[in-house]
Amino acid sequence: MGKKIAKGFYSLSYILFCVFAAAMLLFGLEVWNDAEFLFATQKTIVLAFIVAAGAFFLGAFFLKLSHTLENIKEKKLWTFIALISIFMMILQFLVLNMLEISYLWDGVNVFSSAVSRLKGNDVVELYFSRYTNQNGFLAVTYSLLKIGKLFGLAEADYVYYLNIWNLIFMDVAIALAAAILYRLRKEKKAASVLLFLLITALNPFIYLWTAFYYTSILVMPVFLGIVYLVLCMEGQEKWQIKMGQTAILAVLFVLGTRLRQTTVILAIAIILAKLVALGFKTKKGDAAFKSKRGYMVAAYIAVFCLCLFLTNYACKSYETRINNLDTKDTAFPAIHWIMMGLDHGGEYNNSDADYTASFPTHEEKVQGDMELLTARLKHFGVKGISKTYLQKFINTWVSASNAYPFRLSVCQKYTAAHDLIFGDKKDFVIYYHQIYQIFLLFFILSGAISQWREKRPDSIYILQLSFLGTILFHLLWEAGPLYSVSLQIVYFLLGTYGIVSFSTKAGVFEIQKMRSYLINALFLIGIFITALFFLCNVNTFTKETKEREKRVVNQYLASDNLKIENGEQVSQTFLATRDFNYLNIHLCNHENEKNTSVYQLTLSGDKHGTVYEETIYAKDILLDSFLMRTFDTVSIQEPEQFTLSLKALESQGEDFLEVIYFQMKDYDPYTKGTFIKDGNTLKGDMFLMISEKTNAPYVGRKLYAITAGLFLLAEIAVWLFVKRKKQVR
Q1: In this structure, what is the dihedral angle of CA atoms 341, 343, 347, 350, given to the nearest 10 degrees?
Q2: Full-prediction pTM beyond 0.70?
Q3: Cα 452 to Cα 456: distance, rounded to the nearest angstrom
């Protein structure tokens, strides 16, 4: 790559990276609907100030902390590193055990197929006939479960066991990110690693998402392992070691792409970064490069390609043994996701999936998707497509919570911790996510600008290019909050690198050297905004009542309909560990108003007896309907088993109701209850939501005052910490 081309590409890539980072930062100051209470009660400008002020306090704290850590002896730093690592893992285990998060969508299909294959049965054909890209995920899941089974793992513990593996994959990724930072830093290495771990430890992501068993987490250590290996190879002189590293690199690339095809973006980023680095070399450097023996370079390439081929062949063969479906005509072509990405905000939707599946052959699928893609391009035009891409960008990269309440809120256990994280009080957790991301983005942006001004590529450029490439990819491809999950640890790494660069680059900005009146003014403004917010919202939070809901059971997956004909009865048992007064089930009536069938709905407990009973007339149930009922609150003193039953009193011919339930191979979505028809236990569980609904203020006055006081004390503590002139040694 010529020097001019290299410099031009280098500048263009940094311009694009900075534009996207700045856009993420600015859009991130807006309101997000999943923080429902704040969204409904506050103006956008108020919430933007809250996020900006919170990000400033976090930024000031970590900037000062960075200086402080650099003055602590290295031996003490490594002790702190060990302690914070242990703390994070303990808290991760606690969250896993407190919430018992269930699998949804892709996780359900892959998990149930892996368990089925362990028993010698088939995979979920409809899913794997379409989404062949998930074969790698299936192979990993099957392998992990097989290992567990060899050691006597009970089937009831499979989900928890895989979540433990998920936690391990995430923590290995965190360790690799710390190792990358250690290699990137030329001095104060241990201080930078501890700063990274502290930043990571304060993010809810690494605790909540440990239960999200999906390729987004599993690919993290592979992705960062590739980057770390590339850094190791740069300084390696011994050709034998470098040859081995080349072979391992090829294996990691195959494993990464088999799990998530977006690993190819990292490969492209590494190639481009190396070409840019070569283009920047001086004549002396070029001569030194050319003087290297060509056959050694050829040998490295040959080893890489051979290992790449062999590993890919082995992986594909292993995947075929687990899933040997003939998907030549059923698999969705790549063009499907580009077509789907031009509508509905770019997220997955059933209508586009059904459209592609309706064509019998691969060629017809490609042609049909191309026709719809062309039609959408013409329909939306440049303005409409630009608007769609902006919506996809915001939806994927701006919401720091990654829509976690939607993805993770279905649990086996509902406690006060669940209410805080997923219930009515989740607004503060969501806004902490948002504050945290704005703080990180500021330093990611400043780090990129600082690096760009150096006018020479550094190793961090690989991660920045990968980040940029992933953003560009999801503008064209399927989009959604889920797709930024796999880069979260890269956020932490780039943010930490930005903080270190921000505070050490000459002439940039150092909070310690700012004029004291400016420091005081910024902190006082932040404290004033916080105090004003709490003062102005006393009545909003403590007096205005709104319907609140506490979950008891939330089994809302659905896949099948079950007829309930004359004299038949279906029942679903569930375990209640807290009070409830609301139920919701899903029924289907194909005859609508013509249906003359009559049913009896009964809810009874082992100790309470019958707590609710009602005669249901099918004519009142139209098509697919949710039957929602509220009744007197059932007080629960200790865990109690309840049974919800629906019995057909009168039903003839086509006059019947169907109950919606979920069953998929050997996956039980609700382990604390059973689905029964006429005394026979069926696989799966009824669509069932049980909860307690009350009208109450957001929070009591006492708790509100304590919360406000803690926020203000924390901000004052950060201010005093930043103002300190004497540093710890």
Answers
A1: -110
A2: yes
A3: 7
